[in-house]
Amino acid sequence: MAQVSDVAGMNAERDRDTLVVAISSRALFELGESHELFERSGVEAFAEHQIAREDELLAPGIAFPLVQKLLNLNRAAPAAPRVEVILLSRNSADTGLRIFNSIEHYKLDIARAAFTRGAPTSPYVHAFGADLFLSANPDSVAQALASGVAAATILPSKAPQRQSDQLRIAFDGDAVLFGDESEVISEQRGIEAFHDNESVRAREPLSGGPFRGFLDALHRLQAAFPSEASPIRTALVTARSAPAHKRVILTLRDWGVRIDEALFLGGRPKGPFLDAFGADIFFDDSAVNVESARQHVATGHVPRKARKVADAD
Predict the structure, then answer these.
(1) Number of independent structural domains in the chain
(2) Tens of pLDDT, residues 16-75
(3) How many CB atoms lie within 10 A of CB 227?
(4) Are 176 and 254 contained in the same domain?
(5) 221 and 136 fall within a common domain
(6) What is the side-by-side strand order in the sheet with 113-115?
(7) Residue 226, domain CATH
(8) Stretch (H or E) spanning 69
(9) Are residues 79 and 125 in the same domain?
(10) What would the pLDDT profile of 191-206 be if each residue is shown by its tens digit?
(11) Which positions are catalytic?
């Protein structure tokens, strides 16, 4: 049976201005060896392993720097909308003590958690009111996306070479921030038909994709800081190029959201540009793009087949 930490209680209500990020323990910490043991030998062997090592600190995982920067936003502007990070783990509460010991050591302000003892964690993503869910488990990500929550599978990635205190988040456009209807035209009818469609419908806003809600929440958080000294910077990194750029720009204007940088790459590999931007994380649906990106920055894969039908309307 799943266990929700006492701190969390059973109340998922929160301030609407709070940006809530749910993250799996394998995305936050390096748990590769423990997970292999779990897959190979089951829950009991895994439990013995974790309890025997509960005083050994876990090394930071792929998403650890992102979480640090998110939580640091609370210290940067105490009066701004809060950021809350919630831990979701397939450990039991007993074996999860090692994880909380590591959270305490690294001084991460994470108080709420759900431990499910091997059961799926995805039901708690919606219950906690998460704006974003990051996990190393593709099945959990697919279930969260199907319930309408922005979610991505954290892939083994290279840390960005350009380090800064500023939180930098980059997004693909079609099938991530936007719906995938235009991308489907490109796939089924070719690039010329895609460009014709985007030119004819340039002033018709694109539909929202699975990450539109997260972008809205991030925009509200950005708005709490002076634009000239914001600790958050965002980028749209898309394979689109002229003339398909216009519809994107007008859609973002129609939504009333802020994107600091927009890179229209016309099919160029995205990895080097994400490195130049210094992204703390990049979200994309394309296997080719995430393979390029993860050679340079932390990367989250957003699978298309898991979407709710309404996302492609």
Answers:
(1) 2
(2) 679 999 999 999 998 877 767 666 766 677 777 778 888 889 999 999 999 999 999 998
(3) 9
(4) yes
(5) no
(6) 3-4, 113-115, 83-89, 19-24, 132-135, 150-154, 299-301, 281-284, 167-171, 232-238, 261-264
(7) 3.40.50.1000
(8) helix 64-76
(9) yes
(10) 999 999 999 999 999 9
(11) 172
